Amino acid sequence: MWREGDLVARKSYGEDILFRIAALERTMAVLKGVEYRLLADAAYSDLVKVNDPDQHRPTEKVRLRAEQCARSSAFRKEPDGRKRPVAQQEPSPFFELPGKILHLDGDLHYLHKSMQVYRSLGIPAEGHHVHESLMAEAVYHLLPEVRPDILVITGHDGLAKRPGVDRQYIGNYKNSMHFVNAVRAARQYERNRDALAVIAGACQSHFEALLQAGANFASSPARILIHALDPVYIAAKVAYTSIRDTVNIYGVIRHTVSGLDGLGGIETKGSHRIGLPKLEF
Fold first, then answer.
1. Which residues neighbour 150 within 8 Å (Cβ) at sequence distance 6 or greater?
2. Using one digit for the tens of pLDDT, what is the confidence trace for 84-134?
3. Which of 26, 153, 246, 278 has its CA 20 to 30 A from that of 234?
4. 204: exposed, middle or buried (C-beta count within 10 Å: 0-12, 13-18, 19+)?
């Protein structure tokens, strides 16, 4: 009856989140969120098939909010302080060098979506699909090779669901320890948080541990689900904020889908540069 790739929702949660079946086990299905970076499992009897994702009302609301966030991220300041859409090419004597992004993602589907956003915004980015448990090793090898200004470390995560669970014990999280190790590896390469801005975490990740490890921005202060593209929106804002300025923390997080419950961070300089005369790269 069920196949890998089927779109489903869970009856026990009021069909609130749209999932894709990632794997079929004997009594349970492994699920990956379509819009949220959530890894879950559910009994087959708890699943309901979703034939048309556009008719799944909770998902449609999230999608509309994500589109609004993408539009807000697509604006950047001109050298003279004005704002314009990225796609709107006005004559200018300057050339621009937005920050370069290295994006490591534990989910191939989300990685493709993230890279599409970077391309649409004209941000140089390199993406790699890496299992969460291997991210620290990948960071160790890729940072000297790619030499990015911004590092995104994300994928799937989750907090154990049981009464009285200790939110401060990192062992209660699916992948937070792997993300922490990857951030630590990044800080062994570059300690300066302005020379390398790190955005780390996924749904319900251990926010405090990620910041202590050296992340500039992380999820999730309130241990909520975050949208798949929220780390991308923050990375894009850092890439298009001038090296003379710090990223408006409240402004950038407010324009994510998840908001302040989903993401937080510290004061961070941008990595966008302009130059003269205008050149064609």
1. 99, 100, 101, 102, 196, 197, 198, 199, 235, 238, 239, 271
2. 445 445 566 888 899 999 999 999 989 999 999 999 999 999 999 999 999
3. 278
4. buried
Neighbours of 83 (CB within 10 A): 8
**Cβ atoms within 10 Å, residue 191:** 10
Answer yes or no: are the C-beta atoms of 16 and 5 closer than 8 Å: no
What are the C-alpha distances in Å from 5 to residues 1, 28, 34, 154? Answer: 12, 15, 11, 21
Distance CA 171, CA 167 (A): 9
**Which pair of structure tokens corresponds to residue 221?**
């202060």
Kindly report the pTM of this predicted structure: 0.84
CATH 3.40.50.2300 fits 92-275, yes or no: yes
**Per-residue pLDDT tens digits for 157-170:** 999 888 889 999 99
The strand pairing partners of 96, in sequence order, are 274
Q: How far lies 206's CA from each of 2, 213, 230, in Å? A: 33, 11, 16
> Measured between alpha carbons, how far is 156 from 39 in angstroms, rounded to an integer?
6
**From the CA atom positions of the chain, what is the Rg in Å?**
19
